[in-house]
Amino acid sequence: MIKLGVLCSGRGTDLQSIIDAIADKKLDADIAVVITDKPNVMALERAEKAGIKNICVNRKSFDNQSDFESQLLQELKAVGVDLVVLAGFMRILSPTFVHEYKNRIMNIHPSLLPSFPGAHAHRDVLNYGVKVSGCTVHFVDEGTDSGPIIMQAAVAVKDDDTEETLSARVLEQEHIIYPKAIQLYVEGRLKIDGRHVKILGTKNNR
Ligand code: GAR
After folding, report:
1. Burial class (CB in 10 A: 0-12, 13-18, 19+), 17
2. Which single residue of 79, 95, 116, 184 could bond 121 by disulfide (Cβ 3.0 to 4.6 Å)?
3. What is residue 153's predicted lDDT score, i.e. its pLDDT?
4. Average model confidence (pLDDT) for the chain?
5. Packing angle of the helix pair 13-23, 163-186 (nearest 10 deg)
6. Which residue numbers are catalytic?
7. CATH code assigned to 2-199
8. Which pLDDT band, with edges at 50, 70 and 90, does 94 fall under?
9. Given the CA of residue 109, which atom of ligand 1 is nearest to it?
């Protein structure tokens, strides 16, 4: 069984969609640990409620990013994590970390990448005036929101949208596509070929 390590920074609704997909037998994986970079966030409560090991590795307790990431890696390796799943984790991971889990880190971003990377996607979408936004699941590479794209879903932007209303509609799609993308990984059906992720037609169980 593939072991997931889910990293979060806050509310944890993407985490919840993964927990629910596993409970509903739509996702054939185990969450070995949930790690947050902040204390007292809802993601920790959600993990606790689901009986999943949860740890806060508080970024503020570390002098530098490198020590913080060493602790993250130690926690992930201690439970034998196969795939690192970033679910609302609002930090950029260094090339060293990315290298440790090369092609084994997934992220979900609330825009149609490569448009609107960064920490304020919905605000940037609304300011720009695009008519369609959405969400993107991708493998993490050394850049910011730049890795090979696995799956996307589009959402219409309405004239009267606010960051909150747009984010709520995009989140609905996030909660559908993230568990699906992870399940494709579990089935060994994601083949990375340069910038392209090919979805193979048949299961090739890991
Ligand atoms: C989600 O919209 C996710 O796409 C976004 O943070 C939100 C987390 O919500 N992630 C990023 O912006 C990463 N750059 P959640 O805490 O309810 O899962």
Report:
1. buried
2. 116
3. 98
4. 97
5. 40
6. 109
7. 3.40.50.170
8. very high
9. 4
